Amino acid sequence: MFFTLLTLVIICLVTWLFVKWRRVKNYWADRGVPHYPHHPIVGSLTFLQRENPAVWMRKVYNDFKTPYVGMWAFWRPGLVINCPDLARRVLVKDHEVFRNRFLSSGKTDPVGALNLFTVNDPTWSYLRRRLTVLFTAARLRSLQNLIKAKSNDLVLRIKDEMKNENHADLRVLCSDYTTDVIGEAAFGLSSESVRTGDSTMRRVTREFTKFGLHRGLCWSSIFFFPELVDMFRFSLFPKDTLEFLRQVIHKVIEQRGGYDKEVKESRDLLDALLKIKQEAAAEKEDLDQDFLLAQAAIFLLGGFDTSGVTLTWTIYELAWNPHCQEKLYQEVLAAKQKIGDEDFDTNTLAELTYIDCVFKEALRKFPSMGWLDRIASKEYKIDENLTIPEGTVVYVNAVGMQQDPKHFPEPHVYNPDRFLPENERDITPYTFMPFGEGPRGCIGKRFAYQTLRYGLASIILNYEIRALPNTPKPNDVHIEKNGLFLGPDKKLSVEFRHRE
Ligand code: HEM
Hints:
500 residues; alpha+beta; CATH 1.10.630.10; 4-stranded mixed beta sheet; 22 helices; 8 strands
């Protein structure tokens, strides 16, 4: 009797699974949407840990060349958006429907549950409104002394590196710089990674970018199978790192007079965050204990590698494109001659034109995040032929559009002139989105540009950057396979030759 019952249950279960699987497998075919075949377990995610997701997105774009393509995150149907008009609707016009990201971090992880990047509405709207003031031009100006000091350290560090080895690991160098800038601004803890090549903060950021089996599983689940995150208690940050950062914040705030001491003038992002918490308390809104930690941590995590990788690619491209480098040098030199012995201030740097073009072109070719994810909060009509149900994941394929010759002729050529003001206006809107778009776009964009400008201006004034023999051209550099950002797979090096 027992075995008959068991057999019956197993048969029912297998039949149910089979029927469900067939429905999933035929999902896009039934709707006439182009797609790759469905893998019985991982859906379209066969590339995970084998190919960078941005490289996969580029492949999808080139293989189909259709406005959208069906895919599956495991068994959950998703839609890859390949055209600017749909991108605009999802990210901006119909943002109300697509306010949330699909990716999610666990509820058991305070940083995951509370930070701006992963939270859902209504918490997201509330946080975003409060946090936007952190990145106004005036607030960022208060960080300029810190960034200036770090960019001077960067120049000295390069000098040391050139003495020792004659070439430097660019990603390490640039991430040391961005860790110091963002780490110090967000946590208020002095960080000497650029000067010394190491610091407690740098040990934290290094930990983020290690993609061992466990971290790889955490990241893949957070981005593509959030249901697993709570089940396996995965977290955005390694647990011990989080504990360390919690203690850092607590100690620094105590040193500054405690959580209740009124912040009159904010020196850095941490002061500004504390001020938000105090203002919220005055309005009888209680922001959780870990509110400061969650935001500071996501600024560091969201900022150090994206900015570091962008600076890396920019320097590398400039080494291989000496005519662009010379144009940049002339622009920065002319600005320096105007201010004489003074240091650059944020306004002077922001007024330069070409320096932003060199970053934008590096970001066009190598956007750190190649895609922008959202989830539909209700049924949504894509076009006459397709309506997606609530809960469908949508991936805007930024990297695909940024490298389409239709939008950017000769996309493999590094040509910063595309972004000169007189040319930029011809770029089709929503085909260039390295910082995302719309209300959920990158909140740290201005901060990132400010950090990048200081770093590169200091380097270019002091050094000529040269490509080394036997190193790959930028287009031949292999992309990191198991990382999420579009970073180089191996060490990238150049020669920095001191300018007389
Ligand atoms: C070159 C550097 C950077 C790049 C390329 C970059 C790129 C991005 C992208 C593509 C997004 C998603 C936007 C979307 O979905 O529409 C994003 C979101 C975000 N970024 Fe950045 N980012 C950079 C630097 C920074 C910095 C320096 C910080 C903080 C100090 C930061 C903090 C954030 C946060 C908190 C979000 C989530 C915003 C929200 O959901 O409301 N990023 N970034």
